[in-house]
Amino acid sequence: MAVSSLNFSPDGTLLASSAADKLVKIWDTYSGHIMKTYEGHYEGVNDVAWSSDGEFLASASDDKSIIIWSMELGSIAKTLRGHTNFVFCVNFNPRSNLLVSGGYDETVRVWDVARGRSLKVLPAHSDPVTAVGFNHDGTLIVSCSMDGLIRMWDSDSGQCLKTLVDDDNPICSHVKFSLNSKFILAATQDSTIRLWNYQNSRCVKTYTGHTNRTYCLFTSFSMAKGDYVVSGSEDAKVYIWDLQSREVLQVLEGHRDVVLAVATHPVRAIIASASMEKDLTIRLWYDES
Fold first, then answer.
1. Segment 42-63 mean pLDDT
2. pTM above the 0.85 mark?
3. CA nearest neighbour of 3 among 277, 284, 286
4. Across 134-149, average pLDDT
5. Torsion sign (Cα): 9, 13, 16, 17
6. Is the pLDDT of residue 289 over 80?
7. What is the DSSP letter of 41?
8. Which end of the chain is more exposed for a tag (fewer CB within 10 A), N or C?
9. Which of 121, 18, 24, 5 is nearest to 76 (CA)?
10. How many CB atoms neighbour CB 37 within 10 A?
């Protein structure tokens, strides 16, 4: 069992979590109270993502489906089917009219949210797809995979524009665009996080000190009080690096098992983290300074 993914709503008032217990839960960020539990998946849930207006939440599951939940109705708005194996990752584009997903069928799929149908199936990778996301204007999609490749796609044409690969080709756990979309943050299972300038295909910074050799750990930027990189770790800690200097600024201790998921608050200096089997808690860390 594990809490698999965490995501703050766009205004930061809510935190969504997904887990291997097939449930999606919504929490109040500031009180820590549970607001809602969504039941609908038949197998474990791997990822959750909010629409940009906070009206909808998408969840990706081992039951091969993606469910889009309406916050207003408190129920299922759409179920997206088409993946032929576990769906591992999901994200909305900035306008939230499109959704991108990836999974164990090694494809990246682009969906029309309103119609609930698949627009594109990209034969993206040669191993399970571990993360997908759009850039800030929705023109690009980034994906990464257990095959060690990071790929950039034109979201309109579905064309592969670029492939980034490290010399040693470690399994890529997670990837996301920087806020200005000029860089890509990528976590790999050689216990390293890399910042790529994808225009010239160069790794410009590396962040180390944490442990990541087995699981797909999330990594994130925190921009609330300075520029930081945040990640969970297999030593049960959360690591915070200075984005520019690459120094480990803080190590958060408290979890009792691998910290799989981390999320950073959109406006405040708050980090959410979640752990697996021996722990199964979600913790919220506040910068009081």
1. 98
2. yes
3. 277
4. 97
5. positive
6. no
7. -
8. C
9. 24
10. 10
Sequence letter at residue 259: V
CA distance 192 to 164: 15
**Six token digits for residue 86:** 């576990």
Per the DSSP assignment, residues forming a β-bridge with 17 are 6, 25
- Beta-carbon contacts of 73 under 8 Å, excluding residues fewer than 6 positions away, are none
Q: Which residue has the tokens 């200005």?
A: 180
- Cα–Cα distance between 95 and 91 in angstroms, integer? 12
Q: Please give the full DSSP string across 220-266, using - where no structure is assigned.
A: EEE-TTS-EEEEE-TTSEEEEEETTT--EEEEEE--SS-EEEEEE-S
Sheet of 192-197, strand order = 172-177, 183-188, 192-197, 202-208
CB 189 within 8 A of CB 175: no
56-61 β-sheet, strand order: 45-50, 56-61, 65-70, 75-81
Which of the four pLDDT bands, split at 50, 70 and 90, describes residue 167?
Answer: confident
3-state secondary structure at position 177: strand
